[in-house]
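Cross-posted from the bioinformatics board.
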Amino acid sequence: MRARLRGQIQQLLAFASLIAIVVFFSIANDRFLTWANVTGILLAATVVGLLALGTTFVIITGGIDLSIGTGMTLSAVMTGVFLTYLGMPLWLGVILAILFGGLLGLINGVNVAVLKIPPFIATLAMMLVAAGLSLVISGTAPIYFKETPDFVRLATGSLIPGIRFPNGVLIFIIVAIVAGVILKKTLLGRYTFSIGSNEEATELSGVNVTKWKIAIYTFAGLFTGLAGVLLASRLSSAQPALGMGYELEAIAAVVIGGTSLQGGKGSIVGTVIGALIMAVLTNGLRIMSIPQEWQSVAVGAVILIAVYLDILRRKNA
Amino acid sequence: MTPETTTTTALLDLSGVSKGFPGVQALDDVRLELRHGEVLALVGENGAGKSTLMKLLAGIYTPDAGTFRLNGEEFSIEGPRHAQELGIAIIHQEFNLMPDLTVAQNIFIGREPRSGGVFLDDRALNRSAQELFDRLGLTIDPTERVEHLTVARQQMVEIAKALSFNAKVLIMDEPTAALNDAEVEVLFELIQRFRTPDTGVIYISHRMDELARISDRITVLRDGRYIDTLETATSTVGEVISLMVGRTITGEQRPGQVQRSPDVVLSVAGLSTKKLLKNVGFELHRGEILGFAGLMGAGRTELARAIVGADPIESGRITVDGREVQIGNPADAARLGIGYLSEDRKRLGVVLEQDVATNIVLSTLPAFTSKAGFMRDGAIIRTAREFIGRLRIKTPSANQLVKNLSGGNQQKVVIAKWLAKDCDILIFDEPTRGIDVGAKDEIYALLEELARQGKSIIMISSELPEVLRMSHRIAVMCEGRLNAVLDNAEATQEIVMDYATRFSAEGTVS
C-alpha cells in the first residue's frame, strides 16, 4: 500500500512542477495564458509527446530508441510519397505511413531481440539510415501537400465545433489514453514491465521474450509513424532534414516523467506530463525572449534536476 | 521416512545424459532416478554438473545425449514453458522474480487471465494468487510489489509459483541459502505438504545437516559424472562429503584454546545507527577470530558497514590500536587497516570482468604508479603472483579474468586485495557463501593462518557450525543489539540460538 502511495506522490510531484512552471510563466508574461498560446504549446507537445509515448514502452523494457527522431522524418517523407507522389487516398496514405513507422520498429526489434545488438547501437544505426533515406527519397527537397489540403487539416484543423482546438492535440490525447490502457491492462504492457524488471526471469517463466521484444519495438514504431504524419500535416510539408534531435527531447520527456532508464518502472501519465513540461518550458522561455541557446541550457538543467530528484526519492524510499 | 512407493517405475528417470560446452564436458553419462513421493538430495561441489542438469530439466539447455523418462514414458523438453507444462518446476538459486511486478503478477507471468481476450483481468489474477496462498498456508499480499518483500518471502513466492503449475517434480537449488532457521522450518513444511505419492522433490544443497533432515536418498555428482546414490538414513555426513570431493575431509573441529593476546586492536562502544543498531560495544583482540552470529536482519552486516564508515553512525566511539578514530567512509577505514569483505562478493567484492592481478592491486593502485604517471605492470604482476602463491589461488595465470575463477578462488582474490593494502583488521561477511565444501575448508584454513600471523578477524556467518568451528569468541546479535559475547568453549548451537532469539534484551555486553 505504501509503495503505491509513493508512486502516486511521484506523479503528483511531476504534475505539481508542471503547474508551478505554468504559474511562473503566466505571472512573468501575460501573453502566456492566452488560448492561442496554450493550444500552440499543446500542438508543440504533440509530436515530441507521441514519440515519447512509444519510446516509454521501449525504455521500460530497459532499452532505448535513438531512431525515433529521424524515423519520424522518414515516415513524414513516406507520407509525402504516398499522398503526393503516388496520389493515394488520404486514409490509405496515412495508414501506410504509420505502418511504415511500425516497420522501422520491427527492424529495430529484430536487431535487438534476435541479433542481440545492444539497443543503443541498433537504433543509432537506424537513426543514421533513416536520416539518409529521408534525403535520398525526397531528393533532399521538401515534399508539399498542395493536392491534399485535407491532410493539412489533420493536425491543425478543429473537429470540435465552436472552439479552436487543434485535431493534432485531440489525436495525442486519444493515443495517450490508448497507450496507457495498453501499458497497464494488456499482455504487451505487462511483459514490457516484466522484461525490463528481469529479462532472464521472464524468459524462464516461459514467456517468449524475443517475440515480445520485437512486438514492443514494432508497437513503439507505430507512434513514430503517427508522429511523422502529424508533423508533416502541421508543417504542410515533409521536411527531410528535420527530425534529428527530436529523439533526445522525447527521451528527456520520458525521463522527466519518472520512467527509469534501467527499465521496469514508468508510466504513460508521467510521460505526458514530461512532454508538457518540455513544451511549456520551451514556449515560456521563448515568450520571455530568452535566446534559443539559453533555452537549451535551461532544458538540460531541468533534465538533471528531474532525474536527481528521482534518485533522491528512491534513496529515501 | 519414505512413504510407500506406489509403483516400481520411477517418477523421473534420467540415463546416459551428456552435455558439453566448448572446452568443458559439463555432464558425462549421468543418471538420476527420482522415486514417487521422495525427496532426493543432489549434491556435488561447484562444477560437479548440478546446475547443468537442472538447466536441462528446465528446458534451458538441450542435452547432447541421454534419455528422460517421466513415469516410464520417454520425453524431451522443448523449452522453459514446456518443462512447466510437463509438471517440472524449478526454484532457481538466483531468484527469478520481476521485482517491479506484484506478487500475483509474478506468479502468473505468461498465464495471465484475460477478460474479453484482450484486457488483463487483474482481479481474477489476485484472487487466484490468494487462493494459492490459502492452500499453501502462506500469508502474503498478492498485490504487494515483489521488491518490497524480504528475501524469505520472495522465496515463498517462487515456490508458490512453482506449485501453481501443479508440478509433479519440484527441483530446488540451494533453497535455504538466504533463509534463517525459522524460515527454513516454513520451507520444510511446504516441502512436506507438496510431497505426495504422485510427486517428488530434487533438493540441491550444500548444507549437510539439512539433507539429513529432509531427504530420503542422496545422489552425488562429481566432475560431471554420476558417483553414487546413498540412503540418507544409513549414511554419514563424512561419507557423503568424501564422495563429493573424492577425498576424506576432517569433520567438525574447534579452534584450539589459544592464549588470547591482551592487545585490543579494535574497540567499539555505544555504537548506534538511526536504522537498526542500538548501543553495540565489543573489543577485538590481536590474532583473534571473533564470530558474529545472529538471525537474518539481526544487524551484523549493518554493524560491519557502520564500523567501516559505509553507513552513517548516530552515536558511538571506535578506537583502533588505542586511538579514538573518526571513520567517514570505507577509504578512511582502509587507511586505518580495516578491510570489509562484503557478503555480496560478485557485486561489491571483485571486478569480474578484470583479471586477477588488477583485482589484487585495485585498492593500492597509486603505489603501483610510476612518477611519470604510468602503471608499473611488472610490479603489479609480481605482487599478484606473490599473493596467488601465498593464498594458493587456483588460476592459470595472473591475467585470468576473475569471472572465470570458482567462488572460493574469487574470495581469495578479495582477501589478497585487502592483504595487499596491509589491512590488519579484516571483517568477513559470510566468507563461504556460495562456496563449495572442499573450498570452504581452504578458506577456513586461510582465515586461521591469517589469525596466527597476527591479523584480527571479524567473521559474520549465518551458518552456526561454521561460527562454532572458526571463532575464538562468538558475538550474538538480535534486533540490532549485541546480546552476548561467548567464549568458544562455553558456546553450543543451542546457547547461541537462545541469545540470537532473545528479542529486546538490554544493554551491551563486553
